[in-house]
Input
Amino acid sequence: MDNIKVTVDNITVEVPKGSTVLDAARAAGIYVPTLCHMDGHKSLGACRVCLAEVEGGRGLVASCAFPATDGMKVRTNTKRVHDARKTVVELMLSAHRQECLTCVRSLNCELQALAKMMGIQENRFQGAMPPELVDTSSPSVVRDSSKCILCRRCVTVCRDVQSVGQLFPVDRGFGTVIAPAAKKNLADVACVACGQCITACPVGALKEKSHKERVWAALNDPEKYVVVQTAPAVRAAIGEEFGMPAGSLVTKKMVAGLRRLGFDKVFDTDFTADLTILEEGNELLQRLKTGGVLPMITSCSPGWINFIEHFYPELLPHLSSCKSPQQMFGALAKTYYADKIGVKPENMFCVSIMPCTAKKLEAGRDEMCSVEDIPDVDAVLTTREAAQMMREMGVDFQRLPDETFDEPLGISTGAAVIFGATGGVMEAALRTVYEVVTGDDLKDVNFTAVRGLEGIKEATVKMVCVEGKGELDVKVAVASGLSNARKLMDLIMEGKADYHFIEIMCCPGGCIGGGGQPIPTTDEIRQKRIEAIYQEDEGLPVRKSHENPAVMALYKEFLGEPLGHQSHKLLHTKYTPRSMWPTDVPLDEEAKVK
Amino acid sequence: MCSESCGCSSDIVGIIEKYDSDKRNLIPLLHELQDELGYISPEVMETIAEKLGTTVGQVHGVATFYTLFYTKPRGKNIVRMCNSTACHIEGGRKIREAVSAALGIAPGETTQDGGFTLEVVSCMGLCGVAPAIMVNDDVYGNLTPEMVPNILGKYREAS
Output
């Protein structure tokens, strides 16, 4: 590719043709502040925070969007540039509800950081505020337009990364709000609750619906026996909330921290991830043997479940009937475990720590009640909320001792922990299915073809059947991010997908990049969290789900066999076709403006 | 028909197809549909989104961004009143108050009988005859508040 020479603040750099002024400045090692810009996406130049001076140009340019040309001379450090950028941020502040002390994003807010960096110490412009539209209708995501700075990062993520396209600018000028069509509420449109908009938001305009208070209440209720489960991806990220570098694996400190909060038992969703593999692996084998619907698609990711229910309801028979590990855990906690320790199901309070906001919606689904009308999972905390509770409790996370999960629902394998990364469920399933089909010991458990951040991955695994000696080429595909999932669904719709098994994770990179994870989440950070996940897998003595002794004991004592009667009752579920307008609120009926 | 549930006779799908069902043609497409239907209803937005392979949010976003698109029914007659400097200096506010009083509606509203929609707009290029209003494509300049009821009356009779 052709290169061009650009001089930024007297430093000349060579950058590829097609680069922007921002690219050139970064190549020269010069910091240019940005707000609306997202790496990997076309810039809109919406926020104007990255203004720079181009020699011979008429006015200042938005460096994130302005194309660099050969011989161009750029200045980013003049008084004119600094004054203009500062005014831009001051104008943003003038239309931003400044609740900084009590805002969920305090100290982790890009606007606050810019104001501090630019030395803005007074509100120079005061006047009208933008429309205040607070939408608490979704069980997962809360929107507050009075804090929105209209950068449109959530719009880009919702439309381009997730191909859900529910958030758009409505109206114009000062009256603009980012909202679903006709300013409807999130609960009234096909929002999948993934929370990617939250992790994209530079300020506090989008946040999760908090379950902290109900957890504190349960922890302080002597009647309640409070158990907690932790998803695999949380241990690879929660350290970031306490200032540790991305990729810090903090499983044992996390366990210790949760004990300090007062949970009666600290268990692991990994236990039911292993269980999922036994149920789902056997379901796949059964479909292969009996000519069931193929390809079979994983069902662990609730954002993905919402997506297929809304956008591809005709493909629901492809979904595995397995509940997600979170819900399997909840169902067992309120039946098997409650019974085992002699606690009434209504006094058993089940909390989960999830990298995810869609898990909050999932826990509230009507069908997720194993004992009468008691929900299997009572509260879902995101990684961020769990860290916040530890802070509130005065936990000094980095200095916590190493502690281990409680038994028996805390025992797991390497196959379970990799559920947290894209490709992990597939790899875990292959480790088990291979041994069941071939009767052989799997020498190398690492199926590296399905690992990594690439959006869609494919692999074929040759298996020689122990019965009948026939050969079977199991063809699999793995996708993360819903725009990639959509590509695979379109292939199935066209009859062009000859896969046997597909793993889909709603969020790019899998759960380690979930909407409930620490902010920021970038590709670099995703990669580091993935490395932490595989590091945990490598270090565990048992790395195949069917070798988990506690799961084997559970089948012996309680469940019987995979896909058996008890399993069907507690571990499997049904799906509901949903429309694009799930609540039938007419499109012209606008959400109530506060 | 614009949709299966709708009883209107407009060939909405035909118009969309005339623009190759290409989302890059969304704006001219909205203009033609508005000429045909008077405004862009929510149902029409859904049809457009489906045919163009985009989302209702996107169509709605564009339709609400441009002031020349209407997402609610308009009156038979559109009264445009200027809010820019020249008309302001020549007493434009009094004219606007007189129009509002005569029709009994505020700017942005439509009379209950569907006769008039009132809009405040920026300069219409009629500064030479300020203060001015436009009713549909007709210009009225050098106005005094007393002249307003007569002017509007002509359109009331006609419709």
The mean pLDDT of chain A is 95. The two ends of chain A are 53 Å apart (CA to CA). The longest helix of chain A spans residues 269-290. Chain A touches chain B at residues 159, 165-172, 180-182, 580, 586-588 (CB under 8 Å).
